[in-house]
Amino acid sequence: MTDEQNPENDGRDEQESNADRVNDKRKIDPETGEPRGQAGAASGENPDAAPAGAGAADAAPAGADATDDELAALLAEGERDLVAEYRDTAARAQAELVNFRTRVERDRAANREAVIAEVIRSLLPAIDDLDRAEKHGDLTEGSPLEIVAQKLRGGFDRYGLKKVGEVGEPFDPKLHEALVQIPSADVTVNTVADVIETGYLLGERLIRAAKVAVHSPE
User: At what angle do helices 54-135 and 144-158 cross, to 10 degrees?
Assistant: First the structure.
């Protein structure tokens, strides 16, 4: 029986061939005559090197996360600035509203006082006539004229109308109008000697200055 017909010989040849291939540690390739390992080095291939683009692929998610964080921070900062701006605008609007209401109330009170002052000023001649009638004894108690005088004076009192000009008080050019000046040794300052026409104040508004005679120091 020949080797080709013997299966045992085929098995031994295959095992010997595998053993030679596994244990072949020669640095020179017997078939090509070139040093082993240079072919891979010449081609620039490194079996241990990571595949090209792997680092960039790994770095991309990290960069994306950083961009998302920066965007979130910018959005949060913008939201805070917007809220602060809205609050500042609301505070200014509220302050302007309060100032507007205060100004309206002040103007309303001033206009009301001006209207009342004008009405009272138009009625002062009637008050003067009643005062003269009272000095002459024409306002007897219970008479129709005396009743009218009481009602008219009561209405003026409710609005805060006050008389200006009393004999003996110091002369005040803001409240008095001097029609006569009489030198006197009895005074050291200008003093009201007589009230010719009564003046009136409505609150702090002068409706009419009092016309007076004045004693002045000699």
Answer: 160
